[in-house]
Amino acid sequence: MKLLSAALVLIILFFAAYEIFLFFEPLKIDETLIEINKGASAQEIAQKLYRKNIIRSKNWFYIYVKLSGKDKQLSWGKYLFFGNYSLLDVVEKLISGKVVLNKLTIPEGLTIRKTCRLLSRNEFGNYLKFKKLCNDSLYASQLTGFDIPNLEGFLYPETYFFPESASEDYIIRTLVNRFFTQTAELDFNPTLGLDFYETLIVASIVEKEARVESEKPLIASVYLNRIRYGMKLQADPTVAYILEQMGRTRYRIYYRDLKIESPYNTYLNKELPPTPICSPSYTTIKAVLHPQESDYFYFFADKSKGTHIFSKTYSEHLQKQRNLKKKNGK
Fewer Cβ in 10 A, N or C end of the chain? Predict the structure, then answer.
C-alpha cells in the first residue's frame, strides 16, 4: 500500500514537473512570421501559435491568458518569432503590439546582383550575405527543388513587407516562396521541348527585351521560332548580363562585346544560357508559355516609340532598319 502511494505521488510530481516545464521552459523557435487576425479569440490564437510550433501547449496558453485577464490585451498584427521563448514571453510579445513592417518593391527584370544591392541599400541586410546565399548552389537546390547553380530567376518581383529583424535567409526564402506561389497556376507543359527551368531562362530574356507589356507574347514567339529552327537567339540582354557580371554595366552593346567568350553569349552559342539572366514577372513567363503565333525571326527597337519592329527575314529586317534611319534623318 505504501509502495502504491509512493508511486502515485511520483506520478503526480512527474506530471506537475512536466506542466511547469511546458509553462516556463523556453522553446527554441526557428524564424517564424505569424499573423494574428483582428478579432481573433484567445482560443484561435492558441491554436495558431501551437500549429506554428511557437508554444508547447495551447491549453496552458489559453488557461493562462484567461485567468490573468490578458486575453483582452492580445494585439492583432504580424509578429516575427526567432530564438528562445517561454510561454510567458510569447504572451508578452503579443501584448506589446504589432511588429513594424518595412515596405520594399522589387521591380521585374533585376539580376541577383541588383536585387541584393537594392535590399542592402534599403537596409534590409548585408549585400555580401544576400549575394552569398543566392549563389550557393546547395541552398538554391534546397529552396527550388532544382539542381541549379544559383537563384537567378527565382527572386520574384513584387512589393514586400519585411519585419525589421528579418534575416537575409528569411528574406531570400520569402522571395523564392513567392515565386512558386505566384506561378503555381501556370501550366508549365514543355513547349518545344523546354522544361520548367529552360522556360524561365527564355522568359528572363523576354523580360529584358520587352518595354511594352503587349509585345511580350510577340517577342516570345521570335525566340521560340528561333529555337524551333535551331538558330542562335542573338539576344543583346544576354551579352549585357555578361558585362554586368564583369562589372561593366552600360546601356549600349558594342560589336566587340558580341565576341566575348561565355556560355551566356547567345551570339556565339546556339544553346540557351546556363541560367536565367534576371527575375521575370508573371506576365512574361505566361507570354513564353502562351506566345503569339507569328512567322517573325527578327526584331529591333524603335527607340522613339519604345516598341519593336518585327521581320520574317534578315533582308526584311535590314530594310526596315534602313527605312527607320531614313525616316529619322540619319
Answer: N
Q: Please state the pTM of the whole predicted model.
A: 0.75
Across 21-35, average pLDDT: 78
Q: What is the mean pLDDT of the chain?
A: 88
Q: What is the DSSP letter of 176?
A: H
Decide if 209 contacts 239 (C-beta within 8 A).
Answer: no
Give the largest Cα separation in the chain, rounded: 111
**∠ CA 31-35-40 to the nearest 5 degrees?**
140
The helix (run of H) or strand (run of E) holding residue 36 is strand 27-36
Go through 269-279 and write b for each residue having 16 or more CB atoms within 10 A of its CB, e for each that does not: beebbebbbbb
**Cell numbers describing residue 70:** 490578458
Dihedral of CA atoms 143, 145, 151, 152 in degrees, nearest 10, equals -150
> Rounded to 5 degrees, what are φ and ψ at 72?
-85, -10
The number of beta carbons lying within 10 Å of the beta carbon of residue 290 is 12
C-alpha grid cell, residue 230 = 535551331
In this predicted model, what pLDDT tens digit does every residue of 199-215 receive, in sequence order? 999 999 999 999 899 99
**Residue 139 pLDDT:** 97
| Separation CA 90–CA 10 (nearest Å) | 31
- Decide: 67 and 99 in contact? Cβ < 8 Å: no
Note the pLDDT of residue 34: 85
Q: Domains plus CATH for the chain?
A: 23-96 (3.30.1490.480), 101-183 (no CATH), 196-294 (no CATH)
Question: What span, in angstroms and rounded, lies between the C-alpha atoms of 206 and 203?
Answer: 5
CA–CA separation, 295 and 316 (whole Å): 13
Reported for 194-200, long-range contacts at CB under 8 A and 24+ positions apart, including other chains, are 194/227, 196/146, 197/146, 197/148, 198/272, 199/285, 199/288, 199/289, 200/153, 200/154, 200/276, 200/280, 200/285
